[in-house]
Design a protein that fits this description.
Elements lengths: L6 E5 L3 H10 L3 E7 L4 E8 L2 E10 L15 E4 L3 H10 L3 E8 L5 E7 L5 E7 L12 H4 L3
Parallel strand pairs: 1-4, 5-8
Antiparallel strand pairs: 2-3, 3-4, 6-7, 7-8
């Protein structure tokens, strides 16, 4: 059996605002679908690498998104952590943690809360990782 992760789907309260937010940090909206009269979806990605993030707006859900406690954060790998952080703030995000260097790993990272409150981590690597650092394989971690 062969299996793999390909796509994640988040509910958002305003799909147009969310598309603008993810485009501001370097993603591309590659698909839009009207599922029902009340549900719209959009796919955000970098078509050259990584998985998809599917955004779904369901107009029957009232009020803010209830995330519960299961979801921790969404990683976005980048070659410009500070630029992503600043673009995110200019497009509806709120700062959680400003860009900073990590002593334990060869990375710069920053955190924002997207317009719907999901924690988003921007991660910029200094070097291509080895199998022994920063979790995962070089394919998973590299932004080169």
């Amino acid at each position: 059996m062969t299996s793999w992760f390909r796509q994640y789907c988040f509910y958002v309260t305003d799909i147009e605002r969310s598309i603008k937010f993810y485009e501001s940090v370097g993603m591309t909206c590659t698909s839009r679908t009207q599922i029902t009269d009340d549900i719209k979806e959009a796919v955000m990605e970098n078509p050259e690498r990584g998985g998809f993030l599917q955004l779904a707006e369901d107009r029957t859900i009232k009020g803010p998104i209830d995330m519960g406690t299961a979801f921790w954060k969404l990683y976005i790998y980048t070659d410009d952590c500070k630029g992503c952080y600043e673009a995110a703030l200019a497009n509806g995000a709120t700062s959680h943690t400003a860009p900073h260097r990590m002593e334990r790993w060869p990375v710069e990272m920053a955190y924002v809360l997207c317009p719907d409150g999901y924690l988003v981590e921007f991660l910029q690597r200094d070097q291509s990782p080895s199998e022994n650092n920063a979790g995962g394989s070089p394919r998973d971690q590299s932004v080169n």
